Amino acid sequence: MENYALPNEVSGGRMGGMKFLITAGPTREALDPVRYLTNRSTGRMGYALAGAARHEGHDVVLISGPTTLDVPEGVDFIQVETAQQMYDTVRDLLRGVDVAILCAAVADYRPVSVAEHKIKKSEGRLVLELERTPDILGSMRSEFGYKGVLVGFAAETQDLVAHAREKLLRKGCDMIVANDVSRPGIGFGSRENEVTLITADRAESLPRETKEWLAMRIVEHALSLLP
Ligand code: CTP
After folding, report:
1. CB neighbours of 149 closer than 8 A, spacing ≥ 6?
2. Ligand 1 neighbourhood includes 104 CB (under 6 angstroms)
3. Is 118 in contact with 141 (CB distance < 8 Å)?
4. Global pTM?
């Protein structure tokens, strides 16, 4: 692995030196050698988070599914494809991490089996059998024994704060970044987003802003949760 502990020139040593692990982008779950299941995530929010943390002088490892984005300078980058690969990579790289922000739009289901050869079309319907992928966020405390600050994302269409807070408690998160995906022009595929930062005792709505601006606020807020 490339050394990502670069000199702390950006922050002048102010707040830098924490270790961030960030997941980003979609995952791809193969059906056959030429087809896969995925989603509309571009990875922009996660890459902006990695850039923001690096800009503040922190060590950053970015674990990403396939995207077309440039990796922010100075960020240690690991490309994965499937939810299982992302799960394994996160587990293996958690040692010494102070802040984990799981922003990836991980596929919740994958085909039960991957066809060895391209599936040929025939008359009538084709039924796909899917199974659950591992829940990375839900494994951080219980399976991986992770003790640092844990930030998850949630996409909700109703009762945003209540649903996000329930997720926060269930998965042992310190903060959930919740966005209302029923609103047009923000979130998936957009350059802007409008999110609410939810902790155990507070909910702070941030203005509609670029993902780069929001990333700076999210990183700041996550750092404020360090013991
Ligand atoms: N996540 C994960 N591993 C998965 C699925 C999701 O780490 N297999 C993470 C995402 O990166 C994100 C959060 O979990 O931080 C999203 O949680 P999830 O429960 O999947 O959320 P929604 O899709 O918003 O919700 P729902 O429970 O309504 O399906």
Report:
1. 98, 99, 100, 174, 175, 222, 223, 225, 226
2. yes
3. no
4. 0.92
State pLDDT tens for residues 47-70. Answer: 999 999 999 999 999 999 999 999
Closest CA to 129 of 114, 116, 146, 141: 114
Is the CB of residue 83 below 6 angstroms from any atom belonging to ligand 1?
Answer: yes
Output the residue whose Cα is nearest ligand 1's atom 17.
Answer: 154
Report in angstroms the alpha-carbon separations of 153 from 111, 131, 194: 24, 22, 12
Of the candidates 133, 136, 162, 137, the residue with the CA atom closest to the CA atom of residue 151: 137
Q: How far apart are CA 198 and CA 160, in angstroms?
A: 10
Ramachandran region of residue 80, left (φ > 0), alpha (ψ -120 to 50) or beta? beta
- 21: three-class secondary structure by DSSP: strand
**Helix H or strand E segment including 151:** strand 149-156
One-letter amino acid for residue 140 of the chain: M
